[in-house]
């Protein structure tokens, strides 16, 4: 992998998009909306739709949830090309990316726990946060000597990998942009803001690679040209754009869509027991019923 400012060329004649659920719970209406938008875009553009199973987290991923999501998507009418790509089968791809960043001095081991990171900010009642709301890393381990790092790792200390944001930005030497369409046909060029993430985690203690690394590596390998996903991931695009540039990976077009919310305007989530597609199925709903429900709620044809 080599340093390269990824191309912002127009989408090719046959676009490639992907729907990428995680098998850590049952799919709900929010997943259905994103899946249907991916399929709708593929149909309108004459493109391809791929399915990716983001099961990189072994603690939360379950095979019965994967089986369920495949059943739910099939019931919904989603049709994808090629067998699904399972992240758990491609750890070596993510390790190669992390090793490349480490070799070039752009990533370093961090031995701090979450509690220690918060404590490092002192007695203040509030501290700087990244776009996900997590406390920004204050750089505690950034300047450890190579000998100290090796010593700690040799003694069995647990560590994560962090991107050295200052060095990474210095190496790109150029403003990073990407094309954003949201749910329209009119794209705009957006200036990426990876600095908002500070020294971001790119390899975790409990997971071999972060979502950000796995996502950009998979998109490049699968030839994804158009990423259709929720607006809750829009802020992550800045960091992913930087990682693409550092690793010489292609930059897709982004189409972040609105989120399906509950009656209180809150994002649907598995952790808050949103009504699942399986629940709708057992209550006798049909795929057409579900599409109409989403069309009314979101104000667009599906």
Strands, helices and their partners?
Elements: E1 16-19, H1 29-45, E2 48-53, H2 63-76, E3 85-86, H3 91-103, E4 107-110, H4 114-120, H5 146-154, E5 160-163, H6 165-172, E6 177-180, E7 188-191, E8 201-203, H7 211-221, E9 226-230, H8 236-247, E10 253-257, H9 277-282, H10 287-298
Parallel strand pairs: 1-2, 2-3, 9-10
Antiparallel strand pairs: 4-5, 5-8, 6-7
Helix pairs in contact: 7-8
CATH architecture: 3-Layer(aba) Sandwich
CATH top level label: Alpha Beta
**Helix fraction bin:** 25-40%
Structurally, how many domains make up the residues? 1
CATH homologous superfamily identity:
HUPs
Number of strands: 10
Q: What does this molecule look like?
A:
The chain is an alpha/beta fold and 302 residues long. The chain has one domain: 3-Layer(aba) Sandwich (Rossmann fold), CATH 3.40.50.620. The chain contains ten helices and ten strands. The protein has helices at residues 29-45, 63-76, 91-103, 114-120, 146-154, 165-172, 211-221, 236-247, 277-282, 287-298; strands at 16-19, 48-53, 85-86, 107-110, 160-163, 177-180, 188-191, 201-203, 226-230, 253-257. Strands 1-2-3 form a three-stranded parallel sheet. It has a three-stranded antiparallel sheet with strand order 4-5-8. Strand 1 (16-19), helix 1 and strand 2 (48-53) form a beta-alpha-beta unit. Helix 7 (211-221) packs across helix 8. The model is unreliable at 1-11 (pLDDT under 50).
């Amino acid at each position: 992998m080599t340093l390269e400012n990824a191309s912002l060329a127009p989408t090719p004649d046959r676009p490639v998009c992907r729907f990428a659920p995680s098998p850590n719970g049952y799919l709900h209406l929010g997943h259905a909306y994103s899946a249907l938008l991916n399929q709708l875009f593929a149909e309108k553009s004459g493109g391809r739709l791929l399915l990716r199973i983001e099961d990189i987290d072994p603690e939360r991923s379950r095979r019965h949830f994967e089986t369920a999501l495949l059943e739910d998507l099939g019931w919904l009418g989603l049709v994808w090309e090629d067998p699904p790509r399972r992240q758990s089968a491609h750890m070596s791809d993510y390790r190669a990316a992390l090793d490349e960043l480490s070799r070039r001095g752009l990533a370093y081991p961090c031995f701090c726990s979450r509690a220690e990171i918060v404590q490092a900010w002192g007695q203040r009642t509030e501290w700087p946060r990244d776009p996900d709301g997590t406390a920004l890393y204050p750089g505690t381990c950034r300047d450890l000597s190579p000998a100290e790092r090796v010593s700690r790792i040799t003694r069995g200390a647990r560590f994560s990998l962090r991107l050295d944001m200052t060095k990474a930005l210095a190496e790109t030497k150029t403003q990073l942009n990407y094309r954003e369409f949201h749910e329209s046909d009119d794209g705009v060029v957006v200036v990426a803001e990876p600095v908002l993430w500070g020294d971001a985690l790119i390899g975790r203690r409990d997971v071999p690679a972060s979502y950000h690394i796995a996502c950009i590596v998979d998109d490049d390998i699968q030839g994804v040209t158009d990423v259709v996903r929720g607006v809750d991931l829009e802020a992550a695009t800045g960091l992913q754009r930087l990682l693409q540039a550092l690793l010489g990976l292609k930059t897709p077009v982004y189409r972040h869509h609105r989120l399906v919310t509950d009656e209180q305007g809150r994002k649907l989530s598995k952790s808050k027991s949103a009504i699942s597609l399986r629940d709708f199925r057992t209550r006798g709903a049909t795929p057409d019923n579900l599409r109409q429900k989403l069309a009314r709620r979101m104000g667009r044809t599906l």
